Amino acid sequence: MVWISLVSFMKKTFLLAASVFSLTATLFPIARADEATLFVCIKKYTALGITPDTALSECKQKSLAGCINTLLGKDKEIISTVKKNDGYLIDLGENQDNWLEGGGWRDKGCKPYVNGASKTTRIGDPWNGEVKLEWFAQGICPSNTYNTGIKYSLASAELACKLRAIKESE
After folding, report:
1. Residue 123 half-sphere exposure, CB side, CA atoms within 13 Å?
2. What is 94-146 written as a DSSP string?
3. Does a structural domain hold residue 170?
4. How many CA atoms lie within 13 A of 109 on its CB side?
5. Distance between CA atoms of residues 21 and 55, nearest Å
6. How far apart are the C-alpha atoms of 31 and 38, rounded to whole Å?
C-alpha cells in the first residue's frame, strides 16, 4: 500500500514538474535542444524530494554551465546570415576593437565590405605625409563561417549561451 502511494506521489510530482516546465518554458525561453536533458534532470531532482520549481531552477543553471564550459577557451566563430553574389557577409559587430583593416580582411581571404560601417584614421602629419587607415566592421568571405581567432572569456561565453537559448526558443 505504501509503495503504491509513493509511486502515485512520484507520478503526480513529475506531472507537476512537467507543467511547471511547460509554463516556465513559455515565460522564460529555454533552448529546445536542452528540453529532453532538462526533463531528465527535473525528474532526478523531484525523485529526491526536491520541489519542481527548485529542480527547474537547478537544472537550468546546470544547462547554462554546461554550455559555458563547452565554449570557454574556444575561438569565437561567426556564422553569416546573409549570402551576397560574391560570398557571405561576415559582421564583426559594433565593438570597433574587433574590426579589421582592409588588408586584415584580405589576409583572411575576404574583402572588406565598403558599404557597411567603417572608421578612418590618419597617421602622420600634413608636412611629412599622412597614411590613411580604414577599418571595416564587415567583410565578404568565401565561407559562411569565420573564425575570429578570439577566445571566449567567461562573460562572452555566458552571453553567447543565453543568446543561443533565446534564439533557439523562438
Report:
1. 3
2. S-GGG-EEHHHHHHTT-EE-TTS-EEEEEEEETTTEEEEEEEESEEEESSSEE
3. no
4. 10
5. 10
6. 10
Q: 118 and 135 in contact (C-beta within 8 Å)?
A: yes
pLDDT at 29 over 70: no
Cell of 50: 526536491
Report pLDDT digits (tens) over 85-118. 999 999 998 889 889 999 999 999 999 999 999 9
> What angle in degrees, to the nearest 10, is found between the helix axes of 52-71 and 154-169?
120
- The residue behind cell 505504501 is 2
Domain hosting residue 134, numbered range: 76-149
Whether residue 65 is found in the same domain as residue 12: yes
Residue after which a domain boundary falls, among 71, 88, 118: 71
- Number of independent structural domains in the chain: 2
Give the model's pLDDT for residue 5.
52
pTM above 0.90, yes or no: no
Give the per-residue pLDDT at 39: 79
What is the mean pLDDT of the segment spanning 64-81?
88
Sheet harboring 82-84: ordered strands across?
82-84, 87-91, 138-141, 111-112
Q: Interhelix angle for 52-71 vs 2-27, to 10°?
A: 60
In DSSP terms, which residues pair with 112 in a beta bridge?
139
Q: Which residue has the cell 579589421?
A: 100
